[in-house]
From TrEMBL:
Biological processes, Gene Ontology terms: pilus assembly
Keyword Transmembrane: yes
Pfam family, one: Usher
Residues of the PapC-like C-terminal domain: 556-616
Gene3D superfamilies from the UniProt entry: 2.60.40.2070, 2.60.40.3110, Outer membrane usher protein FimD, plug domain (2.60.40.2610)
Recorded coiled-coil stretches: none
InterPro entries the record matches: Fimb_usher, FimD_plug_dom, PapC-like_C, PapC-like_C_sf
Keywords from the UniProt entry: Cell outer membrane, Membrane, Signal, Transmembrane, Transport
Species in which this protein is naturally found: Klebsiella pneumoniae
Protein's name according to its UniProt entry: Type 1 fimbriae anchoring protein FimD
The keyword Membrane appears for this protein: yes
Length: 636
């Protein structure tokens, strides 16, 4: 429910089947609004803390947080500030990997560019300053970032107070949290925060720094103290992030590492995970180190190589988990293929069962467009082989049908040497009022049939509109009573009998251009404006009103005393008006079958006249043209 700037939201679900009684589940309710002056959001009720400094947790209370969504695109994310000096009125061009990212003109003297759009996490920026006398000076701005880095001068914050939400009702203490992230000059970011709940406290401090050609680095320290259990907890955790790009090689590298300096470190959710945890078990389950490494390599012909490694070790002796992935992928003329290898290992570290568990999986995937045979469709093939499975093969066909792509389908058949064969057939239809789906699947154990419907309902002052989605900002379209009119770029969405429709997924805080398809207008509808521009806020319902004339269309030739009415005369009828063109002709739309035209071309009574018209059958019936024509005498 939206009332002015306030938005009330609630998440509930009803589950029922033939075996159990219907079950009603409430996930939460909250009231929120934008504070545009401070580019922030105020939320009351069930919500989550931000995950910028501490792990995100659910709580019930009040939250005040900055909103990046309200910023211009050129201020979102991290990008370096470029400084330079121009001798004359100069053109400044910024390139990355040969592509122009930014271009502007500056006056003589020092200049600052602080509104670059965020790009890849690393890659040097080439800056060219072209003076008015033709001289060009170039310099390189090193660019690398990690997730904690903020633009120079930006401030990101989150202040919350309320009651921590836990699955255990007895473990829901009062809590508060404050987190701050501030960007400074020279690509420096400082951040920190305080998290407190009953006798649990966690303090965090950190910094992110661009290192020029050496990449970017961030370091964070967290110090947690928990006194709410019988066995107190004290522990520290360190996080290190590093990012580096090698432009000439086309290589990107990132590293994230956690080191828990004491086995008793616990996050807020871990500290309140159970009412009376066993201390020894909790210590053994706590992590000792976490490593995440990713690397990618770009090659000619749109080929990409990638490598990733995730590894966790625990304080319990020898327990660890490791997953390594590597692969190669490419797409040429719409044909996409990939080959990947995954190696997973885990060890419990138990004396009785210390043999590590491992699995290796190789996957080959291929997707081929069938645009020449079946437009909008793709054929796929996947081959998978693992240590515990001799191999499985799957062939698939999926795509969309109809001119508006409203009908989607997917067919797949899988053959596994261990589990036998299985297959599925699914179809979905989007009507603009909601989505319908139907599916059938089978395997060696059973066959299943499933079906469903989904959508949303928008209730407004003039009626009710059904829509496929109601998430985020939406646009309520008012076509002035014209039904069956589709959107220019959303052919599945059409106005209902009252002339209303809903366009979901509008982009908040951005210009949204909504256009009607003039070719879909009924014969008795004329459109005065085909495009509306709107800037909605988060989760807003904004109205796009299109001025339409519903009724007959006619081209009248008006005469007074045997002479055509003067050029530029004003002519009006009920709910419509127009201007006389040459030879006394005037076009009017949205006319009633019968009525009176009033014309005026000056202030005196002798410069006014009226004429009655009648567009009823047989004149309005075929084979007469869509725009009817009549010649009328307009006496004073």
């Amino acid at each position: 429910m939206n009332v002015g700037a306030w938005r009330l939201r609630a998440s509930n679900s009803l589950t029922a089947n033939s075996d159990d009684k219907p079950q009603w589940t409430t996930s939460g309710a909250w009231l929120e609004r934008d504070l545009t002056r401070w580019q922030s959001e105020l939320t009351l009720g069930d919500t989550f803390t931000s995950g910028d400094v501490f792990d995100a947790v659910q709580f019930q209370g009040i939250s005040l947080a900055s909103s990046d969504a309200m910023l211009p695109d050129s201020q979102k994310g991290f990008a370096p500030t470029i400084r330079g000096i121009a001798r004359t009125n100069a053109q400044v061009t910024v390139r990355q990997n040969g592509y122009v990212l930014y271009q502007t003109y500056v006056t003589p003297g020092a200049f600052v560019i602080d509104d670059l759009y965020p790009t890849a996490s690393s890659g040097n920026l080439e800056v060219a300053v072209k003076e008015s006398d033709g001289e060009i000076r170039r310099f390189t701005q090193p660019y690398a970032s990690v997730t904690s880095m903020q633009r120079e001068g930006s401030l990101k914050y989150n202040l919350v107070a309320g009651r921590y939400h836990s699955d255990d009702a007895s473990q829901r203490p009062l809590m508060m949290q404050l987190s701050l992230m501030r960007g400074f000059a020279h690509n420096l970011t400082l951040f920190g925060g305080l998290q407190s709940a009953a006798q649990y406290h966690n303090l965090s401090l950190g910094a992110g720094q661009g290192l020029g050609e050496a990449g970017a680095l961030s370091l964070q320290l967290l110090n947690a103290r928990d006194r709410h259990q019988q066995d107190p907890i004290d522990g520290r955790a360190w996080q290190l992030q590093y990012s580096k790009g090698f432009d000439r090689l086309g290589t990107q590298f990132t590293f994230t590492g956690w080191r828990y300096s004491h086995q008793r470190y616990a996050t807020l959710s871990e500290a309140y995970s159970s009412p009376d945890p066993d201390a020894d078990s909790r210590d053994n389950d706590n992590k000792k180190t976490t490593l995440q490494i990713t690397a990618s390599q770009s090659l000619p012909y749109d080929i990409t190589l990638y490598l990733s490694l995730d590894q966790d070790s625990y304080w319990s002796g020898g327990a660890s988990q490791r997953t390594a992935n590597m692969g190669i992928s490419s797409q040429v003329h719409g044909i996409a293929w990939s080959l990947s290898y995954s190696d997973s290992r885990s060890s419990h570290g138990d004396e009785e069962d210390d043999e590590p568990h491992s699995d290796k999986v190789v996957t080959l995937s291929l997707s081929v467009p069938l645009s020449h045979l079946l437009p909008g469709s793709y054929a796929g093939y996947t081959l998978t082989s693992s240590r515990h499975s001799v191999g499985s093969q799957m062939v698939s066909l999926n795509g969309t049908l109809l001119d508006n792509h409203a009908l989607s389908y997917a067919v797949s058949q899988t053959r596994d040497r261990q589990n036998g064969s299985s297959g599925s057939l699914t179809a979905g239809y989007s009507s603009g009022r909601g989505d319908l789906n139907l599916g059938y699947s089978h395997d060696s154990q059973a066959a299943r049939l499933n079906y469903g419907a989904s959508g949303g309902i928008l209730i407004h002052r003039h009626g009710v509109v059904f829509t496929p989605e109601m998430n985020g900002a939406v646009v309520l379209i008012d076509a002035g009573g014209a039904g069956g009119v589709t959107l220019a770029n959303q052919k599945t969405i059409a106005t209902n009998g009252d002339g209303y429709a809903v366009l979901p997924f509008a982009t908040a805080y951005h210009r949204n251009d909504v256009s009607l398809d003039s070719h879909s207008l009924p014969e008795n509808v004329d459109l005065a404006n085909s495009t509306a521009t709107l800037v909605p806020t988060k989760d807003a319902v904004v109205l796009a009103r299109f001025h339409t004339h519903v009724g007959y269309k006619a081209l009248f030739t008006l005469q007074s005393r045997g002479q055509p009415l003067p050029f530029g005369s004003e002519v009006r009828a009920k709910d419509t008006n127009s201007i006389v063109a040459s030879e006394g002709q005037v076009y009017l739309a949205g006319l009633a079958p019968k009525g009176t035209l009033y014309a005026q071309w000056g202030p005196s009574p002798q410069q006014r006249c009226s004429a009655r018209y009648d567009l009823t059958p047989p004149l309005a019936q075929p084979p007469h043209p869509l725009i009817l024509q009549q010649t009328l005498s307009c006496p004073f």
